[in-house]
Each structure stands twice: as C-alpha cells, then as structure tokens.
Amino acid sequence: MRRDPWQALADPTRRQIIEVLNKAPQSVNTIAENFKISRPAISKQLKILEASALITIEKQGRERICTLALAPLEEVYKWVRQYELFWLDKLDDLEAHLKEQE
Q1: Predicted TM-score (pTM) of this structure
Q2: Residues 52 and 81 in one domain
Q3: Do 79 and 98 lie in a common domain?
Q4: Using alpha carbons only, what angle is made at residue 49 by residues 45 and 52, rounded to the nearest 5 degrees?
Q5: What is the pLDDT along the chain (102 residues), one digit of tens a residue?
C-alpha cells in the first residue's frame, strides 16, 4: 500500500529519521542508535517511510541499508513553496507600507 508523503512527514520520529538519512545512507541498526525507542519501533517507522517512497531499503549481506529518496519531497516542497512566496509578497507589502508611514 502506497502512503502519502504528507502522512509520513506528520510524525516527528520519521522526520528525524529523514534528517539522519540526509547525511548518508545508513543501516537500520545505525539509524536505531540515534533514537531512544526500540529497534522494532524504528523498523515500523522505516516501513511507513518506505511505503511513502521517502526512503528505499536495500538488503546488503546481513544488513538493510536505508537511502533517502527525494522525489516525493519535491511534491511537498512545491506545495510549501507557493505559500512561502505568498507570505514573502505580503511581508514585502508590509515593509513598503511601513516605509511610507515613516
């Protein structure tokens, strides 16, 4: 079942996992070392990220290596970007208005 990247990003632990993987691909055990929750809990979060296509998990020997996949984040970025531009325009308008008031 493919999950929505928005749903995956809603959880702070999953966002932290993305931050960890942003540095470099890592094994599941290495990722788990960054958290104070159980290894099975991390595995559950990784499955959700994988189902959302935000990460890929590849078996290499006895280890499972997780790699960040940026394509779904581009969709999120585009959506957020439109609101960033909206607010930047509003702030520019406010700045111009305040300068006029001086």
Answers
A1: 0.75
A2: no
A3: yes
A4: 140
A5: 677 888 889 999 999 999 999 999 999 999 999 999 999 999 999 999 999 999 999 999 999 999 999 888 888 888 888 888 888 888 888 888 888 888
